[in-house]
Every structure is written in structure tokens, then in C-alpha cells.
Amino acid sequence: MTMMYTPTIPPPDPNTRTPKFKLPKLSCDAHCHIFGPGAKYPYARDRSYTPPDAPLEDFRALHAKLGVERAVIVNASVHGTDNTVALDAIAESNGAYRAVANIDDTITERGLRVLHDGGFRGCRFNFVRHLGGVPDKRVFDRIVAMVAPLGWHIDLHFDAIDLPEYADMLTKLPLSYTIDHMGRVKASDGLDQLPFRILIELMQRDEKCWVKICGSERVSSAGPPFTDAVPFARKIVETAVDRVIWGTDWPHPNVKVMPNDGDLVDLIPLFAPEPEFQQKILVDNPARLFEFDQRRRWRSTSRAAAPGGRSSGSRCSSPWRPASRLGS
After folding, report:
1. What is the pLDDT of residues 104-135, one digit of tens each?
2. 265: Cβ–Cβ under 8 A, 6 or more apart, which residues?
3. Are strands 97-101 and 120-126 parallel, antiparallel or unpaired?
4. How far apart are CA 87 and CA 91, in angstroms?
């Protein structure tokens, strides 16, 4: 029986503007989603929101309009731990797509092998309150121990106010990690706000820390064209340009103001006016992190452990709380 869904959030702007800024060849949208269609890829029963369908054909049309040639699909929590929608998209992409998985502690080594061979190079943990809150620490530790030997990274979605609590834990991770949406800082709180200072300090002292300069519409306090987010992105770029990637966040779930993706592309030269920085952020960095230009052989994770034989993960006293959702 075909499931019928009533969206609880708005769709993306259907009238994507052609950006003035021309993206470099092989530019990558390193943070975006595909939703459904729900009739083919059912939404999870325990989802915290119901999106309008944003299927592969719309995804491709958007990128054609923007000039994007590569993409990283972050499998969203509305699909639960079923990563099929992203697996299928990668299979049809002729090597142009990679993905970040939504997994939990039921994942097996065989399941990881399917994802890895299918083009996944990371998994996501959500710490944001409106999407379920902090994951269970035991689950977090087990998954980190399983994916670290694969060369995967973990993608972390925080509320800005929580970044200071988790900074020490992040530096102790045995693998690289990305922080979404510039840490979801609030532009009106200024560059000197504690969460942003912590984010910059992490980039300075921890070479495992990557940051996504996406979500300007989430950071902005002023609204379109979201230029009050520019100083934050620029500071991130200046701090560690070799560990910065960019994305649209299409189709923009749970935003207060729906952006036009053409406008978001035109923020890029404000973030990074230097052509060499643009090349790194849009092409070279995502190619390196997501292995677009190589194919890593599968390695068993059955004996994965941190140095000294202990289970991977932080031993610090962070305020972990049980939660059912790990994704976006």
C-alpha cells in the first residue's frame, strides 16, 4: 500500500536563480539532502518532521542550474537508518556523488561494507534539540570504533550553545569530524561569542576538525541575502582553508526563511574571494575528504579499537543523554 504524507515544512524555492558566480569545474555541494519520494522511499515513523518530496530529479536540476558537478548526500533523519535513497542516487551518478549515512548501533560489519562500497564516507550524529537531542554515548563510541578504520569521518550537527561542552571530547576522537552549518552560531551575537571562539580554537588546535560553511540562512539574523553570515564564514576560511567545505543544504529543512540557492552560491566569493581558496573549498577539499578520485579497499572493522585496546571515543565527562535519533 502506498503511504500518503502531509508535509509539515515548506518546500525549497522552485525558482532557482542562475548565480552570477561561476563555480570552478568539479565543484562539490558537500551538504545536501534527497527526500523521497515517499511512495518509493518511505519516511521513518519516528521522524520529527515530514518534508515535501525533494527527489533525485529535482536535485539534479538544481545542480545543473547552479553549475555543481559533484555532491555529498547527507542522509536525513526523516529516512531513519534506511540509507537506500542515497545508495540509489550514488549508483546512478557515474561517480559524481558520495554520501554520509544515518546509522545506529544495530549496524553490522556487512551493513557497513554495503555502505562503504556504495560510496558512503561518513556518518552523522545529531546533537540538535529539535531533532532529538544528544545520542547515547555507548552508541556513539561503538559506531566511532567501527567506522574509524575505514577512513570515514563523522559529521556533527550541534546547537551553538552546546559546542563549548563538547570541545574536549572532539579533540580526543580517533578520526576526522565535520561541524555543520558553521556551528549554527547566531550572527547577531558577533564574532566574539563563546561558541564561535570555541569553533575557531578547534580548527586551530585540532587538524581533525573540518567545518562546513553552509547554512548561512540558519546563521543569519538579518535575513536575505544573509550577508551577516559572511564574516563568520570568512574567519573560518582564514583559519584553516584546507579543512573547509561548502554546501547548499538543499532542500533546506526547518529553516525560518527559505533561501534561493542561486543567492547562496553568490555568497561564495564573499566568503573566499581568492580563486585558490575557492578551488580548495569547492573542489580539492571535498575530493580529499570524500575520496572522489580514489577507491579505498574495504578493511575489516571487527577488531576496531582505540590506541591501547580500549573502545574508541571520548572518556571526558560530557553531558550525554539517551536519544533515539542520530541523524539530521
Report:
1. 989 999 999 999 999 999 999 999 876 566 78
2. 19, 21, 23, 66, 67, 248
3. parallel
4. 6
